[in-house]
Amino acid sequence: MSPTRILITGGGRGIGRAIALRFAEPGVKICVAARTSAELDKVVEEIEAKGGEAIAAQCNLRDHGSIEAAVFRAVDFFDGEMDLLVNNAGIFDVKPLEECDPEFIQRHLEVNLIGAMQVTQEALAALREASNARVVMINSTAGQQGYPGSTVYCATKYGLRGFADALRLELQDDGVQVTTIYPDSTDTTIFDGVDLELDRSAMDKPEDVAEVVWRCATGAETRTDVPVRG
């Protein structure tokens, strides 16, 4: 059964946008949350063009009040029940540890890990109200292995993995499933300006990740930890 009430963070572009459009169809309500209102408004139009209903929730994951407001807006739009939460928002940069100042570290922790924890916390009541609800964490292969120059990023993604594993156990009696998806490098704007030599044509595509989310959310994929490739 496909979810019909969906909240997606980082929903204005890249993987989040692709996920929103994969689920968009008549009878589905989607709230896309991100910082940039112009991008969100465009995705809302694209969802509506496919027959779905959608709203935008401007949200800064470094601001707990902003998170509270965005999730409240989503839950109100869903009439109190949420079938699917996709914690997708994230940031990435390459920098050796000795060059990572406190602001760099804090920003990565707040967006990639703490933000996902707080969004989930705010959404829990609505998820518990739904039947067969699910939380999906869009992680990274950096949550499974370390990469040089990515110590801070890897730490946040390993943290997200641990959060998901523990949350799965906490919610196992509530009918809320928790799935972690591990894309490899994916061709989105997250790599714009990053000081790496990359063959972006060989990367995963946002639509590849969206398809895995669809399979998990509809029950076609039953694993709790799912790679995009394989």
Number of extended strands: 7
**Largest sheet properties:** 7 strands, parallel
Order of helices and strands: EHEHEHEHEHEHE
Mean pLDDT: 94
CATH architecture: 3-Layer(aba) Sandwich
Please indicate the percent range of residues in DSSP E strands (runs of 2 or more).
Answer: 15-25%
Task: Provide a descriptive summary of the structure in words.
Helix 1 crosses helix 6 (206-217), helix 3 (64-77) packs parallel to helix 4 and helix 4 packs parallel to helix 5. Helix 2 (37-49) links the parallel strand 2 (29-34) and strand 3. The protein is 42% helix and 16% strand. It has a single domain (5-227), classed as NAD(P)-binding Rossmann-like Domain (Rossmann fold, 3-Layer(aba) Sandwich), CATH 3.40.50.720. It has helices spanning 14-23, 37-49, 64-77, 102-129, 151-170, 206-217, and strands at residues 5-9, 29-34, 53-58, 84-87, 133-138, 176-182, 225-227. It has a 7-stranded parallel β-sheet with strand order 3-2-1-4-5-6-7, sandwiched between helices.
Topology:
Blueprint (H helix, E strand, L loop, with lengths): L4 E5 L4 H10 L5 E6 L2 H13 L3 E6 L5 H14 L6 E4 L14 H28 L3 E6 L12 H20 L5 E7 L23 H12 L7 E3 L3
Short synopsis of the structure:
The chain has one domain: NAD(P)-binding Rossmann-like Domain (Rossmann fold), CATH 3.40.50.
Task: State the main characteristics.
alpha/beta; globular; Rossmann fold; 230 residues
